[in-house]
Specification:
The structure holds two protein chains of two kinds.
Chain A (H helix, E strand, L loop, with lengths): L16 H5 L4 H31 L13 H38 L7 H20 L26 H28 L12 H32 L13 H12 L2 H21 L6 H14 L15 H13 L1 H15 L8 H18 L2 H4 L1 H7 L3 H31 L5 H27 L14 H31 L15 H4 L1 E6 L2 E2 L24
Antiparallel strand pairs in A: 1-2
Chain B lengths: L5 H10 L6 E2 L1 H32 L17 H30 L6 E8 L2 E5 L5 E5 L4 E2 L4 E2 L10 E5 L4 E7 L4 E5 L4 E5 L5 E7 L3 E7 L11 E7 L1 H8 L22
Parallel strand pairs in B: 2-8, 7-13
Antiparallel strand pairs in B: 1-11, 2-3, 3-4, 5-6, 8-11, 9-10, 9-12, 12-13
Helix pairs in contact in B: 1-2, 2-3
The chains are: A mainly alpha, B alpha+beta.
Chain lengths: 549, 261
């Protein structure tokens, strides 16, 4: 038995600029990821606002510039909004930001398994971020959307293919490194006494998401490498004139890009589970089935990609087959939702900002899930494929459930990370505005897609009065959302100088709260080796491992 | 919005079998109606207890400070695994049944070949007659806005007979497009190197939009056309007997070259 050793006092962030740049500490790298994600979230959010303004009225309002049409600018902004929101915000706020900071703290580890690989992953991601900024130069506008469908993405109209390929490759390198790191850390660096059934559900979610990344990313890399060789080196994988097949690209792309939506949403589920258990003072209902459901979603998620291609010309039998597999994702997802609701039964619910965001996130995810069903039903999909319905649907899932989850997580761990308490009033106001604004925005987006059949990716549309009205309502929602997000940003910046927080303000038995100082010390835990008693569990509220608050 | 709410519309159409505007929209609406009510039911079943719990079990100092010690209940968890599985199988099979009708054109359909390109459509009729719609024909260049169908030149409209199924074979000359018959709520991608099929039928004469639904670049949002649905006799007159190509309008741009070779 090693002698218990007490690590140096201090805070995790106190260091010079040089130390931040060359750091291999999981907390600093996590924060670098998080800040990068947040900055890109704001930029992509502004892009989203430009899209809203363009669509508010029929006709093309964006000016043509630099020899390109207004619609080209729109297409670039649409590409930027999609790619950045998905890969920079939705994936990396979790896999880079939250996972790096929290996973070692939750499993009682000093750092991740490969700290230098972790730094390398971040700096690859940073390189990709710089390349994304390069696309702001008009000649570099990438207009092939984040999906980059061949053969359009090889067309000169689509912008520089090579830049797109390079960005995706750097993102892939970073993701692979990150996922290997997380898997190894979770498998081999758990503290003594923390078995697989004693992991936080957030850790299970990161494990499942990392497995998806590890198995899926090669397919994405393959798809863009073939795109590159097709355009520049004269191969013809995707060129039908020379015997290639454009659908090959879609299969390779969606084999990764469908499962990746679970990389985005599973960690949000993890946050919901953490927050709902903590704020209810109650163990999560059905822990084992909650954990298994995470892995089931990750597994089934790999068998559903063709639902993105239901009208792409694949054979009818294939569509029906994938219709069933896609619908089956609803079963484990349903288990999660029912178990969250059951956790509330006979709870003692504390209503604070993280809890509100979690409730909102779960109820919005329910809408997102139920509106996902028609996209999986082949019969309905024929009529709504590539309409604004699907855009509204995935904004319920990603724009609301995921972003609510991320905001919930930011508020929840804010005291642990910064050592300060956020402003509760401002946080709640931000939540209610966000809930109202986002629902106005995305409900009517779905409505116009289903009831009016409006196609997506349209800066211009026929001036049908009802369409114009529905578009204007959405813009009102988007403006309310903007105010809500700004309030949260102000809250976070202002609260860096807020009142000092306690070590365990929520009274959670989970390791990152109960065994660290606030803010976390440079060496994570108050004492080493980290050990937990036999009957400890991250959600063991009834055994007295949590402080009474 | 003065239009009837969407729900009532759907329920109404599902009940009134006659007076169908378009196929396969009728089958599509049938599936949508079933999904909609299932989704509403599930939402109520989940949201009502959640909100009830949220209010009833809120934290109250001295009265309700700690949650109960409940870790799970295997029986109830099995119930809410099995029931969703049954619902999912039902929805999948229901949509499968409609899908078969939506995909397979009835006998005796008029067959049209559609070729998509950046940015416009070519329609070819069985006798060889061709109609072109280019993106700049559906908009007003001065206002930089869409024209409504009645303002669009008739030579740019594809005529189809009312009350008769139309089967479309679609392909593309450059990148992937998608032929979306708006009021018939059916779409199918037009993929270069492949021929895809779909069908639709309009029962009421009129002018109906066709949109491109697969992103294809600068003028994707103006890659529209208009189907002019006319009575059979008028259609026959318009189609004429002779094969031959309609002159292309002069303002036409050459379609961009898809892949540099």
């Amino acid at each position: 038995m090693a002698v218990a050793h007490v690590p140096p006092a201090g805070t995790w962030y106190g260091a010079t600029l040089k130390e931040w740049v060359f750091t291999t500490d999981h907390k600093k790298i996590g924060m670098l990821y998080f800040i990068t994600s947040l900055v890109f979230f704001i930029v992509a959010g502004l892009f989203g606002l430009i899209i809203r303004f363009e669509q508010t009225a029929p006709g093309i309002q964006l000016p043509g510039m630099f020899g390109q049409e207004g619609t080209d600018l729109y297409n670039y902004i649409l590409t930027g909004h999609g790619a950045v929101m998905l890969l920079w915000w939705a994936v990396n706020v979790w896999m880079g930001g939250f996972a790096n900071f929290l996973v070692p703290l939750m499993i009682g580890a000093r750092d991740v398994a490969f700290p230098r690989l972790n730094a390398f992953s971040y700096w690859s991601f940073f390189g990709a971020s710089l390349l994304v900024l390069l696309t702001l130069i008009p000649g570099n506008w990438i207009k092939m959307l984040w999906t980059g469908y061949a053969p359009y993405s090889m067309n000169d109209n689509a912008g520089p293919t090579s830049l797109y390929v390079l960005i995706v490759l750097l993102y892939s390198i970073s993701s692979t490194g990150g996922s290997v790191n997380m898997i190894t850390t979770i498998v081999s660096m758990r503290a003594k006494g923390i078995g697989w059934t004693k992991l936080n559900l957030f850790v299970h979610a990161i494990m499942a998401a990392s497995l998806i990344q590890l198995f899926g990313v090669p397919s994405l890399m393959g798809s863009v490498i073939l795109l590159f060789t097709d355009k520049y080196l004269g191969t013809n994988f995707y060129n039908p004139l020379l015997g290639g097949d454009p659908l090959l690209y879609q299969h390779l792309l969606w084999f990764y890009s469908h499962p990746v939506v679970y990389v985005m949403i599973l960690p949000a589920f993890g946050v919901f589970s953490e927050v709902i258990s903590t704020m209810s003072r109650k163990p999560i209902f059905g822990y084992i089935s909650m954990a298994l459901a995470i892995y089931a979603i990750a597994f089934v998620g790999f068998e559903t990609w063709v639902h993105h291609m239901f009208v792409s010309g694949v054979p009818d039998w294939l569509r029906v087959l994938f219709s069933y597999t896609t619908l089956f994702v609803g079963v484990p997802t349903g288990i999660k939702i029912f178990n969250w609701v059951a956790t509330l039964h006979r709870a003692a619910i504390r209503y604070n900002t993280p809890m509100l965001y979690t409730f909102g996130g779960i109820l919005m995810f329910l809408i997102g899930g139920l509106t996902g069903i028609p996209n999986a039903m082949v019969s309905i999909d024929l009529g709504i494929s590539d309409s604004l319905f699907i855009v509204g649907h995935f904004h319920y899932v990603l724009g609301m459930a995921l972003t609510f989850g991320a905001f919930s997580g930011i508020y929840y761990w804010f005291p642990k990370v910064t050592g300060r308490m956020y402003s509760e009033g401002l946080g709640k106001l931000s939540f209610w505005l966000m809930l109202i604004g986002a629902n106005i925005m995305f409900f009517f987006q779905m409505y116009i897609g289903m009831a009016n059949g409006m196609p997506r990716r349209y800066p211009d549309y026929p001036p049908i009065p009802e369409w114009v009205q529905l578009m204007q309502i959405q813009t009102v929602g988007a403006l309310i959302m903007t105010v809500a997000i700004l309030l949260s940003l102000i809250n976070w910046i202002k609260s860096l100088k807020g009142p000092k927080a306690e070590d365990n303000p929520w009274g959670s038995p989970s390791l990152e709260w109960s065994m660290t100082t606030t803010p976390v010390g440079p060496n994570n835990f108050k004492r080493y080796p980290v050990e937990v008693p036999e009957d400890w569990h991250p959600y063991a509220y009834f055994k007295g491992y949590h402080a009474h608050v | 919005m003065r239009k009837l709410p969407f729900l009532l519309l759907l329920a109404g159409i599902a009940m009134a079998k006659e007076d169908v505007l378009a196929y396969p929209r009728a089958f599509w609406e049938n599936s949508v109606t079933v999904w909609f009510w299932v989704a509403v039911a599930i939402y109520i079943i989940v949201a009502v207890p959640s909100i009830y719990f949220m209010i009833k079990y809120r934290y109250r100092p001295k009265e309700n400070e700690e949650g109960a010690h409940i870790e799970g209940n295997t029986a109830i968890e099995i119930v809410w695994t099995v029931i969703p599985t049954i619902i999912v199988l039902f929805l999948g099979t229901y949509s499968f049944a409609n899908f078969v009708k939506q995909r397979n054109a009835p006998e005796g359909a008029l067959e049209i070949k559609v070729t998509a390109f950046m940015w416009g459509w070519e329609f070819e009729y069985p006798n060889g007659k061709k109609v072109y719609t280019f993106f700049n024909q559906v908009s007003d260049p001065e206002k930089n806005m869409y024209l409504m169908p009645e303002k669009i030149d008739d030579s740019a409209k594809a005529y189809v007979p009312a009350g008769k199924p139309v089967k479309v074979y679609c392909t593309s000359r450059d990148v992937i497009h998608s032929f979306f018959v708006h009021e018939a709520r059916v779409t199918e991608d037009c993929v270069p190197g492949r021929i895809t099929k779909m069908w639709f039928q309009f029962n009421k004469p009129g002018e109906y939009w066709v949109f491109c639904r697969e992103y294809c670049g600068t003028w994707h949002s103006r890659m529209a056309s208009v189907l002019k649905v006319v009575p059979q006799e008028e259609f026959d007159k318009w189609l004429g007997g002779q094969a031959g190509q309609q002159a292309q309008p002069e303002q036409v741009q050459q379609p961009a070259q898809p892949v540099q070779q």
